[in-house]
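On clarity, I found the account of how folds are encoded harder to follow than it need be. For illustration, here is how one protein appears when written out as sequence plus structure tokens.
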Amino acid sequence: MDFSEDRKTVLLVDDDSDFLFQQRLQLENAGFHVLSAANSQEASHLLDQQRPDLAVVDVMMENPDAGFTLCYHIRKRDPSIPVILVTSVNSETGLEFATATEQERSWIKADALLAKPVRFEQLRREIDRLLKV
């Protein structure tokens, strides 16, 4: 039996190569197939080729709002793909936002928001919740 067909695919998008490496390694060790991209353009290219089961997207990459824009495009392309935003915006700028209410999710376009630094346990808990694993 080929277990690779049963693995869920996670798209991981962040311009921080250390974050990508660490999260990719932990997700793969947890049994996920991981697609990674260093910016929203690379992520869009991957989305043209494959459909992930879930996306984890950094807010600030090549532009301060690149993650928000990518979330919008993911939702427009396939609204069934859950999106987790990860960000250090709160600690760097003092701006606070969340995905707790329907109104917040309507403009953020994400299902969950995690503040960096992200512990893998936090990320895994949100992935499991959104994929109903």
Observations:
- The longest strand covers residues 9-13.
- The CA atoms of residues 8 and 32 lie 5 Å apart.
- Residues 3-131 form a domain with the Rossmann fold fold (CATH 3.40.50.2300).
- Residues 91-95 have pLDDT under 50 and may be disordered.
